[in-house]
Amino acid sequence: MLFSQAFLPLTVEHLLKEGKWDARLAVELVLLALLQLFASLLSHRAGHHVANEAGTSLRRAVFRKLLRTPFLKQQGLARASIVSRHTADVDRVCDAFEATLIEGIPAVIRIVQSLIILSFLEWRTGLAMTVASIVFLIVRTGIGRSLLTIDRQRLDASSTVGELVDETITSSPSIAGSHLANWQGQRFSNAVGTLRQLTDRQGAKIAQLVAGANAAGLVGLVVVVSGALIRGGENLAAVAASLLYVEGVVKGLETLPSWIRGVQQGVVSQIRIDTILQSPERLTPSPTTSSSAGLSLVDLAAQFDSGETVRNINLVLPQVPVIGLVCTTRVDPDYLCALLSGDANPTAGAIALDGHDVRHDSVKERIWSVPANSSSFNDSIGEIFRGIHPVISDSEILSALSRFGLAHLPQLTTGLDMPLGPGGEQLTRNERQRLALAVVLLARPEYITVGPILALADADTGLPLLQLLKESVTSTAIVSINTAELAEATDAVLFIDTDGVHLTTHRELLMTSANYAHHWAQRLATDEVDLSVLGIPDGDERTLLTRLVTESYSPGEVIYRQGDPADRIVFTIAGRVEIVGTNAQGDERRLAVLGPGNHCGDLRLSPGEQRAETVRALDDVVVRSLSREAISAGMTGLLDRTTAERQVVATLLRHGPTALSDLAPLMPALTDDQITQALALLERDGAVTQDSGKLRAVQKRRSRTGAADLLDRLTDL
To answer: Which residues pair with 341 in a beta bridge?
Structure first.
């Protein structure tokens, strides 16, 4: 391209100088023009390809580094600023690189070669253009320095605007609740005003650069025309060629401002990107710390957000199938799970696996984790499974979903290949947590930590999951426990309180630790939840109160969805929820708004019962829920029965009369012997009967005397 640009004016000069048609020169002119056209297209495509490949490598490098830096936890940078470094800043670096390849370097070479040839062709014009170009470069250097500063300030101001928008979206409940909309609007207006002023200053400097380039071109034009007028028309050919070279210089000079501006913005963006690329590692593993086999805590010290601290902990965890993690209210079990899985730094000391710090990459790969705040991804269920199990089949995915109580998800999401929405918004929190657990356990991890997920907050739903953990983990599962019945089902309990760390069995801790016994002795206030709506006697109500599970939801979050299995009743403690329904045409309408003291999700315990409405949080909501299994046990007088007996009755109530051969697949957590023993006890007490070869649960309805009893008698009459 540069070759054709250099020789095209000379060919024009030869043609005009001859003053007659020259076929050879005409063909040469056409070939040079075609060469320049083809070379220009090729160079632009090649330059774009090289810049694109470089940009892709940069994006990957930034993302890989981000995963290992404190910025992953938003320590030091706001989320919007981190995102802008991945997108806008990398784009600016790529654009600057592409402009350098396609425009910048060719422009500089074109200026130099045009000035050299012009000086030989018309030395006066060449001298004038050289002087004008040097003056322009000197002026550009001064303007460029101030423009670089303005570019940096403008990019920072643009990031501030983005952070304010992101902050407004994430903090909308606080803004509305504290009436801060005007204040936040003023903050945004100030940030936008700063951005506008810097953009104006940036535009003024760019205009000065463009004007300087045009001035240099005009100097050359004036010199050429003046020389032609003074010498007369006999030098017409040289004048025409000179004009073409002057045009080459002018075009090169006009390219410089936009190119240099792009390079400067790319430099600023690169500096911003370097805050990630050059940041220290988020995790700082220590050298070999222990000679013990398995997981061990070595001189461990940790501080929690509540201010609670633990210090000088030295402990070797037993290699048993399940260790229950029990914490007081001021100790965060999720943070402890992060420490144990190597995803957080302790204040001092370390956690080691077979003598090596769990934060080392090679060691960390042996420990998997499912935190309480498990979020899903805007991808399909199938792709989420294949992220860990690339060759898994659809039938294996469906089997895993069924084992974890998620068999309904393919119908909800129209199969395994439909995206779940940003953050998996189509799923409830319980479904997101169960899905994460299902995906991880299929990998048969050596160790796994599980935070306080909702499914483990109730004994009847948690015990089957504990059994799945025992079957799936090759060494040890460390599970956050919230009920005494689940603690009893674990092989050991790790209890952390203000006195330190205790490790033994649940029964031993009850006898030796007053804090541990008090932890389980605490009960919910009876005036917060009215269980009389279930028609259960007072004695059973008090027992059921210990089975309530506390849950919290953010505004807009789904508590349960229309079409979901009816698995629990929900009592609103704080905040408001809305109940919405969908008609046959798919139109959604609000049915009711419920505040504290109300309940939703009535369970009639009919076979195959599904939700007839969707319930969403309108505010920051706290609810307490009671599982279907607990309710069925209370209504059938089985609260004090074994877990196996309660599960058998709950399964029969959910699925209706069932043959014995079909019962076991519905309860994979129970062995055949456990089912047989439970059925024998239930049939002896009349809680289960057989009719035409099928088992059926007998519901013994109990209700309070008084108005409700009178109405029932009138209905019977």
So the answer is: none
